[in-house]
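Render this sequence as a predicted structure.
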Amino acid sequence: MSVDGWHTLLVLGGIRSGKSGFAESLVADAPMVRYVATAPAGDPEDTEWAARLAAHRARRPGSWTTEETAADPGRLAEVIAAAGPNDTLLVDDLGGWVTVLLDPAHQPADDTATIAELASAVRASEARLVLVSPEVGLSLVPTTPLGRAFTDALGATNRAVADACDAVALVVAGQTAWLKPASTPHTHAAPAQPRHATSAPHAQPGQTTPAQSVLGVPAQPVEAAPAGADTPAWAGLDQPAASTGRRPESAAPDAPLPEVLTPTASPAPAPPSAGPAGDGDWAAPTMALPMIATGLVIQPGMELPMPDDYTGPQAVDRLATLDLPGAGLGVLEQVVGFAAATQGSSTPRPWDTVRVLLLHGDHEGGASAGAAPGESARRARQARAGRGALARLAAENGASLQVVEAPVSAPFEDGPALDADQVEAALRYGWRLAEQAADAGVHLLVLASCGAGAEAAAAAVLAATAGAEPPAVLGRVVTEQGEIDDNAWMVRCAAVRDALHRTRRSPREAKDILAELGGGDIAMATGVLLGATARRVPVLLDGPVGTAAGMVSRDLAGQARHWCLLPDHGGRPGVRLAADVLGLTPLLDLRLDLGEGATALAALPLLRSALTLAATLPTHPSLGGAEEESYAEPEPAGPGPAARADEPDFAEPEPAGPGPTTTGSDEPVSPGRRAD
């Protein structure tokens, strides 16, 4: 029954593609086949579904036996593991299995662990095994949360099982294409880092990074970059494009990373005599580690970690037992669930170590219409000096700040914003920024941006990835004087329209979108999200650049969006749309417009307060919680009582008469009160 010596086979295909018939033909000559049916019975009134099931049963020979696993998703792995070397199994199909897995009747459940158990059973199977599964990766992103959950879970299942199988076939319109022939040496990915790990040892020259193990990419040696360098890593970016007259050259992705600045809260502006900018507002860099090149190949379909599916709901359920007055935390319960899932603990701790990554990368051409020349560079310099809204809020939150120069993007209405090499370099550089933060013990990243034209570039990315109309997602242009510039807005809309028309026949892969439309800052932000996901570091998104990067990262690693939290949409229509597509619900509706990243920092104390309450409050006494102290009312005092040393005196003092006397401890003594 084997084809080119395969032992386990995954058959993929679309609806009515002929995948089931092809799978059945492969085992037709086996003396006996155990058919494992995974789909639930369905609604009795759904006659069309019943007819489909009947057609499948009618095709099976009488010598086949049928085993159903719809009642328990975990049983499929048990059936495969129990099969012997003389058994032949046909599993049809994994789409029905995922449907049952996500059924509320089986929740709460660790879906990721169940999928991993299935893949392990397939990899260790001694039987001849054929599995059938729908391929949903070619369809549009579902518009409902349940639909997105199904496609994410089925995609993760298909990838895990395909890696475990000896061969993979794709059936399209009745035609079979072999994606993974058995003649290709089968290698297993290196073990991923522990499920709840938050950081990993820093790689040394000649070693591979932890992210390589997570991704299962070929191990490549890493080299140490020059230590002690703290200049901007992108060649030529220290000079504005307007003054140089040319675009900067692509920088090596293993160039030194920018200096990490540690804020010091200073509520009043520094006096003019404070000295050079930055001398008094920031301390020395927080870390001095040798930087490394990751050696990663960032490509679609990367296998990155997912947050813990169990601890998030468990932490939210635990809130109902706490000694909280009133209805509780309201929408901030989402923060507790998010932190619990990303930390792998049902009692998540507040984020103590926070780092802000401020990406400065301008967009030339019509995208930056209405932006004051040099304004974004001034904002970046201001942040480096510890001044401005972003730096002040970072100081108040005790967060470190890293100002990163991204490559300047060419006018996308005329040609690509970046070339392919620059996109690769920006992605890997962003990944390294996240790795550096993880190695420094950072618990939370805040993604910020201050580039001219960034909002128009984000609108173009949204139009290309979500089918949005540019005027609907491009916010109004507000001048430095606070006035609305409708002419500049129309120029930006026209530039986005022309860029989309120019690229109408171009591929819509993630890297193509970054090169044609996204530019340097969005490409680098995408790398940050991917690197943070690989190292299990959550990210606060805030503004168009971060959400556009989230849209692009879906095609490279769908797990990235699950590590992102959106505190506020800021009143920006593009951010609202991206949040809806990504399944991110904004927590607040403050409509602050302080610059990308600053709104997240303004909301951070509130988020920390919710986590502090969730982590420290005891269980309510009515639910078995112990009283921490006695709240009994004191007994009425008799004449001349002696005060207990361990009880404070909460009695109101009597009005003092004229000429009070004092005790040796300078305590006033009222008339009629004897001094001890």
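Summary. The radius of gyration is 30 Å. The mean pLDDT is 76.
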